């Protein structure tokens, strides 16, 4: 028995690049890709996408109070997107009961969020300890957002964790230091991966509390950490080249990562690789469509989730 209905209603991803993670899910259910919630004359009968470029879990005001406002360059947070959902409700349903029924047979994809929250202090040159101080606030923000969606009627949600930040060319290029500890097989910065692991552990504990509080709601933890590590350690399993963490689209910079802060993908001096399907890192910051596809399938069938989205008996 498939418990997840064939309606994919709402996705909160941090920016448009991450939308590739939703393609296999839509294909699995024979659905079109979701239109942006702000699209004019679009049909939202089968859902909407509420992505904001650089979205954070916490509102900008939180960062401004800590002197990090200039490091946050998005136009809204998770809570902005939830308000957009409320504004768009008339496009989904016309009564309280109809909305309740519609949301009850819908999948809410909440994230990946938190990466940009932590980038605020890190890209401002702050020590990793500053980012550690944010973890309880970020996890609480995601938890509060999930609570608000449940209050709106959500019954099936997938809440992703963060990726192993120490494996991404942007961090490997910014934090070049012979004293740093690198994974002997992965080449990733160990202290940054530990940081990502701590966030994910705290998020999973928060989701367990939500499950206990809302026994009639299914909350799935979506794992980004494990697959990215596997992309590096077992690349042939996914059709990727065996190489150090390396951007497909970029320019030579510090180290072998094909990443340069002054010539990022899309900027003068940067070029894409011949075949993105053989790379897991697209631009040193985001994944390739191929990588997102492997992860989404793992969420659907359980390889990269604490329970499969699609459950059959």
TrEMBL record:
Gene3D superfamilies: SGNH hydrolase. It comes from the Eukaryota. Signal peptide: none annotated. GO terms for molecular function: hydrolase activity, acting on ester bonds. InterPro entries: GDSL (IPR001087), SGNH_hydro_sf (IPR036514). Keywords: Glycoprotein. Belongs to the 'GDSL' lipolytic enzyme family. This is GDSL esterase/lipase. It comes from Aegilops tauschii subsp. strangulata (Goatgrass).
């Amino acid at each position: 028995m498939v418990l997840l209905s064939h309606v994919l209603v709402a996705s909160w991803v941090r920016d448009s690049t991450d939308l590739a993670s939703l393609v296999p899910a839509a294909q699995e259910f024979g659905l079109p890709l979701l239109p942006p919630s702000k699209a004019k004359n679009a049909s939202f009968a089968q859902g909407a996408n509420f992505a904001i470029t650089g979205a954070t879990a916490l509102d900008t005001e939180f960062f401004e109070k800590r002197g990090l406002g200039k490091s946050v360059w998005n136009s809204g947070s998770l809570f902005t997107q939830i308000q957009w959902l409320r504004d768009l409700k008339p496009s989904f349903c016309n009564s309280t009961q109809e909305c309740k029924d519609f949301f009850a047979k819908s999948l809410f994809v909440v994230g990946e969020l938190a990466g940009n929250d932590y980038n605020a202090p890190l890209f401002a040159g702050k020590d990793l300890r500053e980012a550690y101080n944010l973890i309880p606030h970020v996890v609480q923000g995601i938890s509060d957002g999930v609570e608000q969606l449940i209050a709106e009627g959500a019954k099936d949600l997938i809440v992703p964790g963060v990726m192993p930040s120490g494996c991404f060319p942007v961090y490997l290029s910014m934090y070049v230091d012979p004293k740093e500890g690198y994974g002997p097989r992965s080449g990733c910065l160990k202290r940054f991966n530990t940081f990502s692991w701590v966030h994910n552990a705290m998020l999973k504990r928060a989701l367990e509390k939500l499950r206990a509080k809302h026994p009639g709601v299914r909350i799935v933890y979506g794992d980004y950490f494990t697959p990215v590590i596997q992309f590096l350690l077992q690349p042939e399993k996914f059709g990727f080249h065996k190489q150090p963490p390396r951007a497909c689209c970029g320019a030579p910079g510090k180290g072998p990562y094909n990443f340069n802060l002054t010539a990022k993908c899309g900027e003068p001096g940067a070029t894409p690789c011949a075949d993105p399907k053989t790379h897991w890192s697209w631009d040193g910051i985001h994944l390739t469509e191929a990588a997102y596809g492997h992860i989404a399938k793992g969420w659907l069938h359980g390889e990269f989730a604490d329970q499969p989205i699609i459950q059959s008996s």
